[in-house]
Amino acid sequence: MADVYATIADAEHEVQERLAIVLERRAADLQQQGMLRAYLADMELPDGARVLEVGCGTGAVSRELARRPGIGQVIGVDPSPVFLAAARTSAENLPNLEFVEGDGRALPFQDNCFDALIFHTTLSHVPEPQAALAEAFRVLRPGGVLAVFDGNYTTTNLATGDFDPLQACADAAMAALVHDRWLIPRLPALVKDAGFTIINQRSFGFVETTAPDYMLTVVDRGADVLAASGRIGAELATALKAEARNRVANGNFFGSITYASMLAKK
Ligand SMILES: C[S@@+](CC[C@H](N)C(=O)[O-])C[C@H]1O[C@@H](n2cnc3c(N)ncnc32)[C@H](O)[C@@H]1O
């Protein structure tokens, strides 16, 4: 199975609609909101700043940006017309926010026209991230700020001990659903090669134990990937999903992912 986000415009309408719901649910998560606000607070922007979010999905991060005092205009770009339709509906009361269909590797904007550009859990889904970073460099004005936030998906953990079979679900899900799960360790070199100067890097933890809304989806998607590839049978996939739910009921479920942010300057 390939990363559906990497070729999102080719995905079936129904799949894009289902993912639109997933994106809004994730954006409503308090831990996710905390990480977003923490790295946005580190960004120093001029009054009336023009900000671009590349890979805006349904626009949750763009809305947060547009509501910030001092931000002049926010534009969200995404290749998915389905996500953009949902984004426009949710942003009707934000006159300083607009959405444009496009690909981060060929942005439909002039050189040097943004004060800040954000990739929020997007760059790990973009084949050829160096092309997207080169475009970010082009459209940012000199001194403009690049922000990248993404999962360090190789840290996705569902194990509570050695050889825990639930970890196979975590590994299979990330390998199948994220185009480059090594993006974060490679990011400093990629950003420097694109011409940026790194300002700061931060690491964040996401953990779910008693109400693991998101991490149970990782178990389920990983078990489904393993079954679809023929590595395990349908019975074992069902048993792995049941094991995770038994752990939740017994109070010994643990799921976590490390995220990271980087700010850099043109
Ligand atoms: C996990 S979603 C993140 C969406 C949004 N930033 C958020 O946090 O809610 C990844 C996004 O990257 C977008 N994407 C994938 N390939 C892209 C590309 N080549 N250029 C721009 N965006 C892309 C997808 O359509 C999707 O909306």
Question: Layout of helices and strands, plus pairs?
Answer:
Blueprint: H1 13-27, H2 30-41, E1 49-54, H3 60-67, E2 71-78, H4 81-90, E3 97-101, E4 114-120, H5 129-139, E5 140-157, H6 166-177, H7 183-193, E6 197-208, H8 213-228, H9 234-250, E7 255-265
Parallel strand pairs: 1-2, 1-4, 2-3, 4-5
Antiparallel strand pairs: 5-7, 6-7
Helix pairs in contact: 6-8, 8-9
The site of S-adenosylmethionine (SAM) has 23 residues, from α1 and α3.
Structural key phrases:
single chain, seven-stranded mixed β-sheet, 266 residues, alpha/beta, 7 strands, binds S-adenosylmethionine
Provide a descriptive summary of the structure in words.
The chain has one domain (4-153, 178-206, 258-265): Vaccinia Virus protein VP39 (Rossmann fold, 3-Layer(aba) Sandwich), CATH 3.40.50.150. The longest helix has 17 residues, at 234-250. It has a seven-stranded mixed beta sheet, with helices on both faces. Helix 6 packs across helix 8 (213-228) and helix 8 (213-228) packs antiparallel against helix 9 (234-250). It is 42% helix and 25% strand. It is built from nine helices and seven strands, in the order ααβαβαββαβααβααβ. By secondary structure, it is α/β, with parallel strands linked by helices. The model has no long low-confidence stretch (mean pLDDT 96). It binds S-adenosylmethionine (SAM). S-adenosylmethionine binds next to helix 1 and helix 3.
CATH H level, superfamily name: Vaccinia Virus protein VP39
Query: What is the overall silhouette?
Result: globular
Find the count of extended strands (DSSP E, 2+ residues). Answer: 7
If you average the pLDDT, what whole number results? 96
Bound molecules: S-adenosylmethionine
If strands are numbered along the chain, what order do they take across the biggest sheet?
Answer: 3-2-1-4-5-7-6
**Gyration radius from CA atoms, angstroms:** 19 Å
The second-level CATH architecture is 3-Layer(aba) Sandwich
